[in-house]
Each structure stands twice: as structure tokens, then as C-alpha cells.
Amino acid sequence: MLIQQALQQARTLGVARLDAQLLLAHVLGQPREWLLAHDDELLAPDPAARWHGLLTRRAAGVPLAYLVGEREFHGLRLQVTPAVLVPRPETEILVDWALELLPVAPAATAVDLGTGSGAIALALKASCPAAVVAASDCSAQALAIAQRNAAAHGLDVEFAQGDWWAPWPGRRFGLAVANPPYVAGDDPHLAALRHEPRAALTPEGDGLAALQSIVAAAPRHLLPGAWLLLEHGHDQAEAVAHELAQRGFVCVRTRTDLAGLPRCTGARWRGAK
Ligand code: GLN
Fold first, then answer.
1. Looking at residue 272, what is its pLDDT?
2. With a threshold of 0.90, does the pTM exceed it?
3. Superfamily assignment of 82-269 in CATH?
4. What is the spatial distance between Cα 138 and Cα 140, in angstroms, rounded to a whole number?
5. What is the best residue among 115, 120, 182 to mutate for testing ligand 1's pocket, by most ligand atoms within 8 Å of CB?
6. Which of 90, 162, 195, 218 could form a disulfide with 166 if both were Cys (CB 3.0 to 4.6 A apart)?
7. Whether 58 contacts 19, CB under 8 Å
8. Residue 78's closest CA among 118, 135, 121, 24?
9. pLDDT band, very low/low/confident/very high, at 147 (cuts 50, 70, 90)
10. From the alpha carbon of 231, which atom of ligand 1 is closest?
């Protein structure tokens, strides 16, 4: 069968045309542009069978990033497996905000809590090489992926295993960022995300528990003047802002995502209290 015929057939499986092309390009080890320029060539039975297997999994809702094993985030190509959340475009807003603050952050130190694939920490280090960047995750499997991504890009990030701030008792940072699990445990949206690690998506309950623990322990881990930036659900900005103000943070503000929804809230730690 010719490549163009195979791509036509893939439509009947209910896989988006772009995804079908990207999966075939992946199987053939070629860029997508090559496919389009060579769609009158024959597709051999072996790659055809492997591609069909991937199309079936895509049709079953497996994220494209897991099927091709990578995702681009903030200009970095990152390896991803089902052990980590697929990095999302809205999280780049958190990174951009952090990058505005990092050059002037106390001691030029930053921490990414619950790093997963390492996306946020690596994007910060890549754009601000002079900064000291640390990152935690409670999952050893996730940290292994993050470390591989760091090595692939030659980025020196200090990874440590543990919940949020736990790996660093007594240590203070000049900037902290986190994209913790924040989806409510009964959110119907979770069904569509079933192939990703549930613990990275939801702390169960109303979705606020992880955000609250991060804010609660932050005063013990931030230098005076340090910012704490948090990604959250579209309906959680008020709760997060309240939590920050309650704990003694100042300059509380919220930024919206690409859809115009409140997505990140941050505030400045004013010092000992
Ligand atoms: N933004 C993600 C989603 O709803 C959730 C990420 C998270 O819980 N940190 O798809």
C-alpha cells in the first residue's frame, strides 16, 4: 500500500489526521515533512503493522506524547513516559512568569516542586543558566525521566526524591514554582486523562490539598522577598490567593492561560513571621 492510501485509511479509525501522520513519521524514523513529500512511496508491512498498533492505542485515548515518547515544552524536547504527566502548554505561562523573576530572585536559587518530567526546572535552567535550580518529586520513576532529560540537554539541575519541600529541611530558596495535582477527585475530566498518572493530576477531594500543603510549608523554605508561583484549576484562583494571604504572603496576583482562564497565582514572601 502507498503511504497516501494508508493515511486515508487511518481516518476510519477516528485518529486526527495530524496525529496519524506524526505516528507514521515516528515509526519510519522520519520528520513529518518527509512523509508529505514521499506519500507516493510504498509502506512496507512491518512499519505498517507497528503504525496500526499505535493508531489503535491513540484511538483508545493514549496521549500522542506517550506513543512517540516525547513532547516539546518551552523549546526543549523532553522524553515522557506514562510515569509522568505530559507537559502542558499552559504550564509555559508559569515558566515565563518565573523567568521574569529568576534573574532578580534572592540568591538566584529556584525550586520546582513535583517536577515530573523535569519540564519546569529544565526550562528555567535552560533560560537562566546562572541560577541554581533544584527539583523534587515523590516518584523515583519520574525522577529517572527528569534526570535523563537533564542529561540529554546538558542541564545541571539538582533532583531529589520526596514530597514537595521534604528533601530540603532548613534550606531556603529565592523562587519556588509548582504545577501540583489540582483536579478534583470527582472531576469528569479525569476520565479523558486516564492514561496519565492519577497522582500527578489529582490529590482527590476538592483538588486543593497539594496546593495547600505547598503554601503551608513555604514560609520555612523561602528567603525574604522570594516569590511562590502555583499553577491551579480555572476555579481555584480565589482559594489559592486566600491561602497565600492567610500565610502572610504579599503582592498576591493571578495570571490567565491561553484560554483566558485564571491559571497561575503567585505571591511574595515578605520574610520571617
Ligand atoms: N492542567 C491539567 C489538566 O487539567 C492538570 C495538571 C495538574 O493537575 N497539575 O489537564
1. 65
2. yes
3. Vaccinia Virus protein VP39 (3.40.50.150)
4. 7
5. 182
6. 162
7. yes
8. 118
9. very high
10. 9
